[in-house]
Amino acid sequence: MDTDTIFHVLGICVVVCPAALLGALGLRAIVGRPLGEESINRCTYASIMVGLTAAVAILGMMLVFGTRHVAIELGDWVVIPQQHFHFHLKFVFDRLSVPFVILSYLLCGTVGAFTSRYLHREPGYGRFYVSYAFFTLGMVITSLAGTIEVLFFGWELVGLSSALLVAFFQERTAPVRNGLRVWSVYRLADAAFLIAAVALHHMTGAGDFDRLMGSGSWPERVASLTPRQALFVGLLLLVAAAGKSALVPLSGWLPRAMEGPTPSSAIFYGALSVHLGAFLLLRVSPILELSIWLSAAVVGVGLVTALFAAITARVQTDIKSALAYASLTQVGLIVAEIGLGLRYIALIHILGHACLRTLQLLRAPTLLHDYHTLENAIGGHLHHQQGIWARVIPAPARLWCYRFAMERGYLDGLLDECVAHPFLRVFRWCDAAERRWTDFLSGGRSRESDAVEVHAEVVEELRL
C-alpha cells in the first residue's frame, strides 16, 4: 500500500474506535442485555489501545515523511442546494490535532483504568461507561475536525456527556440541578458557536478550515476574512470558548460540575473538556491575527480568568473545587498565551497541564485519607504558614478578597440577574399572553390559568 492509503486506514481507525465502543455498550444497553464489568473493561481497553496505537503510528509517519498536513475526506453527508449548504465530513491530521488526539486517548485510557476500580459494583457502572464513550468519541471528532460543522458535532457530544456525568448520581437532587446548570451554560456557548459557524458560511461560502484559515499547515495560515469580520466572528467564538472552558464571566458552573464522580471530574474539568475552549482558539488562531482588538479581548479574558481563579482557589473547602479552580488558573494563562500569538507554547502548556491535573484529581480521594492519617498520627490539625501576601495586603482588602472568593466572584448571581431572569420574564409574559388569548377564544377561564395563578401566589408567599 502507498503512504496515502496507510494514512487513510490509520485515520479511520482513530475515529472509528470510540464509535465502536459506544456502539457495543449502547446497543447492549438498548436491547436490555448490558455487558458486565469485565466485558466493559475489555471493550474499553481494546478500543483505547487500538485508537492510541493508530494515532501514534500517524505521528511517527508524519515525522518520518516530513508531512505536516493530512486530510481524510469522507464526502458530503448532508446537501441543501437551495441554501448552498453541505455537511462535509472531513478529518485533518496536523501539528495541532495529532498531539491533542493522542492526549485524549492517553488520558481517557488512564481514567478508564482508574474507573474500573473506583466504580466497582456501582449500580451505574455501565451508564458511566456509555457517557464515557460519548465523551471519547466527541473528543476525537473535535480534535480531528476539518470543518467547523464536524467540530461543532464533536463539541456537542462532549457537552452532552459532561452534563450527563455531572448528574450521574441521579437519586440526589443537587447533582441533577447542577447538571442542568452546566447544560444551560453550554447552551449559551453553543448558540454563540452556531451563530459564528453560520456567519463564516455566509462570509466565505464554506465551513472547511482549509478555506477559512487559508492553505498550508497550522499555524502558518492566513484567514480569508476582513478585520471587521474577524472581530465579529472571533468574539462569538470567544464566547463559545468561555462557556466550554469556564472563562470569566461564565465560570460559575465549574464548582457545580464537581458533583460528578471523581473520574469524570478528572477527565472533564482537569484535563480535556476544560481545555476545549483553548483548543478552539488555537484552531482559529489565524483569525486572531487579523484584529488587534480581538487579540486584546482574548488576552484580557485569559488574564482576568487566571486572576479570578487564583484568588478563588485559595478559599475552597473541598479538594476537588480547589483543583478545579487551580486548573482554571492555568487555562486562563493558556488563553492569554494564544491571544499573544504564542501558539506552540500554549499547545505544550495544554499537554503538560492536562496530564498533571488528571493525576492530581485521581489522587485526590487517597490524598484526603493520607492527610487524616497524618493528623491522627501527630494528634492535631496541619497548619499552614501565612504567605507574603498576608503581610503585604491590608486587612480590609484581604477581607474583601476573601468574601469575593467565597462568593466565587458573584458570577452565579450576575448570570441569574442579567441572563436567566430576563429570559424567564419574557417566557412568562408570552405564556400569560397565550393563556389570555385561549381564555378569550374559549369564553372562560381554563384550568391552566387557575393553576398558574395559584402557583404564582404560593411562590409569592414563600418569598415573603
Q: Layout of SSEs?
A:
Layout: H1 3-30, H2 37-65, E1 69-80, E2 85-94, H3 97-118, H4 125-144, H5 148-166, H6 173-204, H7 209-212, H8 227-245, H9 262-271, H10 276-283, H11 285-288, H12 292-313, H13 319-339, H14 343-378, H15 388-392, H16 395-406, H17 411-442, H18 447-463
Antiparallel strand pairs: 1-2
Helix pairs in contact: 1-2, 1-4, 2-3, 3-4, 3-9, 3-14, 4-5, 5-6, 6-8, 8-10, 8-12, 9-13, 9-14, 10-13, 12-13, 12-16, 13-14
Query: What oligomeric arrangement do these chains adopt?
Result: single chain
Annotation field: number of helices: 18
Structural class: mainly alpha
Average pLDDT score: 83
Can you describe this structure?
The protein is mainly alpha-helical and 464 residues long. It folds into two domains: 3-368, no CATH class; 410-463. Helix content is 73%, strand content 5%. The protein has helices at 3-30, 37-65, 97-118, 125-144, 148-166, 173-204, 209-212, 227-245, 262-271, 276-283, 285-288, 292-313, 319-339, 343-378, 388-392, 395-406, 411-442, 447-463, and strands at 69-80, 85-94. A hairpin with a 4-residue loop joins strand 1 and strand 2 (85-94). It is globular and about 70 Å long. The model has no long low-confidence stretch (mean pLDDT 83).
